[in-house]
Write a structure and sequence with these properties.
Strand content: over 45%
CATH class: Mainly Beta
Number of domains: 1
Radius of gyration: 16 Å
CATH topology: Immunoglobulin-like
Distance between the termini: 17 Å
């Protein structure tokens, strides 16, 4: 049984990773497609980041009552502690991101479980959203 899967929706250049038991959802929205008209044309479309940024934004929605500590995983190693998201609240973090590469997010709920998302390729300028469900303990990817 596959718990986490990646679904790509091209209508708004959005990729979404959803958990079968609604444990965590990881959404990526390419901000390069946000402005369709009136944008300036670059002489070399491959010469600059279309989003004009060397960062990604990570928005976390914690639907659980417990506080969640969140880390990024890059190249299969814990890379950076993003911070703590209080129970039943949201938080937004900005991370320097210069290349297109896989990202995993780990969250550890206070006095509860620890979960690690499946990898998802993220580009500079993307917006990533992690949703922490009310009861992630039912997911086999959480320990």
């Amino acid at each position: 049984m596959r718990i986490l899967e990646i679904v790509t929706v091209r209508a708004r250049a959005r990729a979404r990773m959803t958990a079968g038991l609604a444990v965590a959802a990881l959404l990526v929205t390419a901000s390069a497609c946000a402005s369709l008209g009136g944008s300036r044309q670059s002489s070399n479309p491959f010469g600059e980041n279309p989003a004009g940024s060397d960062q990604i934004v990570i928005h976390i929605q914690n639907f659980n009552f417990n506080d969640a500590t969140v880390w990024t995983y890059v190249r299969d190693a814990r890379d950076q502690k993003l911070g703590i998201v209080s129970g039943k609240s949201d938080a937004t973090f900005t991370v320097r991101w210069e290349f297109s590469e896989p990202l995993r997010l780990e969250f550890d709920l206070l006095a509860s479980v620890r979960c690690l998302t499946e990898p998802l390729v993220v580009d500079p300028g993307d917006v990533v959203e992690l949703q922490i469900s009310v009861d992630p303990s039912q997911d086999p990817t959480c320990a």
